[in-house]
Amino acid sequence: MKQSTKAIIDDLLIRYPAITCCNESLVLAIETLINCYINGNKLLTCGNGGSASDAQHIVGELMKGFVLSRKLSSDKRKQFTELFPNSCQYLIANLQDVLPAISLLGETALISAYSNDLAPDLVFAQQILGLGKKGDVLLAISTSGNSQNIIYACEVARVQKMVVIGMTGETGGKMRDLCDVLINVPSIITYIVQELHLPVYHCLCMALENEFFGEDN
Q1: Which residues contact 104 (CB under 8 A, 6 or more apart)?
Q2: pLDDT the model gives residue 215
Q3: What is the pLDDT of residue 54?
Q4: What span, in angstroms and rounded, lies between the C-alpha atoms of 147 and 71?
Q5: Domain 3-63+98-213, CATH 3.30.1050.10 — does that match?
């Protein structure tokens, strides 16, 4: 991990000292995702309610520039120039490099059909069965750690030989035994857990962006 990435983590803990207890698990989560992306894999995210919004928020920060501009690689710019000379300048100027991530909240037709026809609490699990591959990472968010649809998602992810990172409240709930990495922030009150999750995953996204697109200071 770059020294500049460690500085991002240190800054988080200065601004949010309550999260200091999560330092080790946060570092492990970042290292896990670094390895995921180095190996050409992807991240899947899921959650309910406010955590669903967090799951989508995370994808938004990874699939485009967050705090860095993420210019396309010289090889990619060359390909656009050679294949599409009429549109290459526009494409190169506006496209940004990505860290592949998919939210399992967005497939409205699939989610509604599966919920109606089969089992509503398996809508995330079904998508993981179809999209999850060995080496991919599932970031599963549940303030209690006991949301049944998230539990099922973690179980299927393990069958798919994915790595499971959990974000929960203090106890970790049932997810504790299903996660390879558990970031359990120090509260059991839902809105406080959600308030603490935000700086944690912002730090995670900034750290990953810095690892792949930043300079090593």
Answers
A1: 44, 45, 46, 55, 123, 124, 127, 128, 153
A2: 82
A3: 98
A4: 39
A5: no
Edge-to-edge strand list for the sheet holding 101-103 = 101-103, 43-46, 137-141, 163-168, 181-184
pLDDT digits (tens, 9 = 90+) for 81-111: 999 999 999 999 999 999 999 999 999 999 9
Report domain extents, the chain: 3-63+98-213, 69-97
Do β-strands 181-184 and 163-168 pair in parallel, antiparallel, or remain unpaired? parallel
pLDDT digits (tens, 9 = 90+) for 110-137: 999 999 999 999 999 999 999 999 999 9
pTM to 2 decimal places? 0.94
- Estimate to the nearest angstrom the gap between the alpha carbon of 103 and the chain centroid: 8
The tokens describing 15, both together, are 């601004």
Closest-CA residue to 2 (of 27, 36, 29):
27
In sequence order, the β-bridge partners of residue 183 are: 167
Q: Are 163 and 32 in contact (CB under 8 A)?
A: yes
- Token pair 């049932």 is at which residue? 174
**139 beta partners:** 45, 165
